[in-house]
Write a structure and sequence with these properties.
- InterPro entries: Sec61-beta/Sbh, SecG/Sec61-beta/Sbh.
- It holds the Pfam family Sec61_beta.
- There is one protein chain.
- The chain is mainly α.
- The protein has one domain.
- Helices cover 74% and strands 0% of the residues.
- It contains four helices and no strands.
- It is elongated and about 65 Å long.
């Protein structure tokens, strides 16, 4: 019974410790991740809807510039 008890302790100890540096860094530090996305973090607060509208309007302006450049080129030839 002494061997089984020591084997279990060694097994749980080895399972808790990662075998490689990649396994150790895979989870990351949840403490720093939470600091990035809390209400206390300083920075610019923008509503996701505003970001969507601004990005779609930027894409639309690029389409407009391309189409207007083709129209202007067609009339200047």
């Amino acid at each position: 019974m002494g061997l089984n008890g020591s084997r279990r302790a060694a097994g749980t100890q080895a399972a808790a410790r990662p075998n490689s540096s990649r396994a150790a860094g895979a989870g990351g530090s949840s403490n720093t991740m939470l600091k990035l996305y809390t209400d206390d973090s300083p920075g610019l607060r923008v509503d996701p809807f505003i970001v969507l509208v601004l990005s779609l309007s930027f894409i639309g302006s690029i389409f407009f510039l391309h189409i207007s450049a083709k129209v202007i080129r067609a009339f200047t030839k």
